[in-house]
C-alpha cells in the first residue's frame, strides 16, 4: 500500500497539487476525484484496474493528501472546482471521462456547470450534490472548528480515525485506515483537517443543484446501499434530477464504496465508461 505515490506537481490557483497518470497515454483519459476527508489513495485499486483500458489521472485536492496544506488556504468547493478546471487544462484534456466521489462530485459538477469543463461521461459515486449534506458530527465541527483545532494530538488522531472508519459499512483494514488518517496528523495536517470542514458551506451546492436538469451528457450515479453519511434516498433524488441518468445501487457498501465493494464498483464503471 505504500507504493501509492503522486510524482507530479501542478501549481494550481490555491496551492500545489500532487498528481499522477497511469495507463497508456494513447488510451481514452479518465480523471478520478476523491472526497473528504480522503485522498486519491481511495482510488488506488480501481485506478489500476481502469488503467488496463484507459489513461487514468489521479490527484489530491489542495489541502488534502500529499498536496499543499497551508494557513489561510482556500479549500472550499468553489476553489476546488476552479482547481480542477485548471488541472484539466494543464493535462490537456478537453473532454475526459470523469469519476467523482463524495465532495469530488460537487467539484466535478461545479467545474462543468460553472466553469465550462466538458466531459464525455460523468460517474458520480455517493456524491455531495444535494442539500442538506454533512453528518451531525461534520456540522458540529464546522460550527466550532477553532475549538476542535486545539485538541491534543492524541485526541485529534482518535477523532479522525473514528470519523473515517464510519465511512465504511463492513469496516476498513487497519493499514488502510492508518493511511487515510496519516495526512491529517501533525500540526499542518490537524489544522488542514478542521480548515476543510470549516469551509464546507452548503451554498456551494445550492448554487448548482437547480441546474442539474440542464446536464446533457451520459451520467451514472452509484450509491452504497448502507451509506450512513449520505442516505441512499439522495441517490434516487439526484438521478431523477439529471436527464437520462442511470442509478446503480451497490449492496453491502457504505459511503466509501471504493473500499467496501471495489469489484462491484469497478465493474459498474467499466461498463459505463466503455
Automatic annotation (TrEMBL):
SUPFAM superfamilies, alphabetized: alpha/beta-Hydrolases (SSF53474)
Record keywords, A-Z: Hydrolase
Keyword ATP-binding: no
PANTHER family in the cross-refs: HYDROLASE ALPHA/BETA FOLD FAMILY (PTHR43194), PIMELOYL-[ACYL-CARRIER PROTEIN] METHYL ESTER ESTERASE (PTHR43194:SF5)
GO MF assignments: hydrolase activity
UniProt lineage: Bacteria, Bacillati, Actinomycetota, Actinomycetes, Kitasatosporales
Domain AB hydrolase-1: 32-267
Annotated InterPro entries: AB_hydrolase_1 (IPR000073), AB_hydrolase_fold (IPR029058), Carboxylesterase_BioH (IPR050228), Epox_hydrolase-like (IPR000639)
Name this polypeptide is given: Alpha/beta hydrolase
Superkingdom classification of source: Bacteria
Amino acid at each position: 500500500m505504500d507504493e501509492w505515490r503522486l510524482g507530479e506537481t501542478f501549481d494550481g490557483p490555491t496551492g500545489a497539487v500532487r498528481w499522477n497518470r497511469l495507463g497508456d497515454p494513447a488510451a481514452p483519459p479518465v480523471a478520478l476525484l476523491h472526497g473528504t476527508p480522503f485522498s486519491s489513495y481511495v482510488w488506488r485499486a480501481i485506478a489500476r484496474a481502469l488503467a488496463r483500458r484507459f489513461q487514468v489521472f489521479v490527484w489530491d485536492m489542495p489541502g488534502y493528501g500529499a498536496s499543499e496544506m497551508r494557513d489561510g488556504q482556500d479549500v472550499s468547493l468553489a476553489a476546488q472546482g476552479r482547481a480542477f478546471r485548471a488541472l484539466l487544462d494543464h493535462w490537456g484534456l478537453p473532454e475526459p471521462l470523469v469519476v467523482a466521489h463524495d465532495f469530488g462530485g460537487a467539484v466535478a459538477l461545479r467545474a462543468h456547470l460553472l466553469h465550462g469543463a466538458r466531459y464525455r461521461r460523468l460517474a458520480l459515486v455517493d456524491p455531495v450534490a444535494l442539500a442538506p449534506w454533512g453528518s451531525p458530527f461534520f456540522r458540529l465541527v464546522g460550527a466550532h472548528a477553532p475549538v476542535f483545532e486545539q485538541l491534543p494530538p492524541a485526541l485529534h488522531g482518535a477523532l479522525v480515525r473514528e470519523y473515517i472508519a464510519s465511512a465504511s459499512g463492513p469496516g476498513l483494514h487497519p493499514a488502510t485506515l492508518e493511511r487515510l488518517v496519516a495526512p491529517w496528523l501533525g500540526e499542518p495536517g490537524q489544522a488542514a483537517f478542521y480548515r476543510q470542514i470549516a469551509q464546507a458551506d452548503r451554498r456551494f451546492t445550492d448554487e448548482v443543484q437547480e441546474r442539474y436538469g440542464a446536464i446533457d451528457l451520459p451520467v451514472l450515479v452509484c450509491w452504497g446501499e448502507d451509506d450512513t453519511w449520505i442516505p441512499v434516498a439522495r441517490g434516487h433524488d439526484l438521478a431523477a434530477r439529471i436527464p437520462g441518468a442511470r442509478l446503480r445501487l451497490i449492496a453491502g457498501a457504505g459511503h466509501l464504496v471504493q473500499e467496501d465493494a471495489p469489484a462491484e464498483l469497478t465493474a459498474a464503471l467499466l461498463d459505463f465508461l466503455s
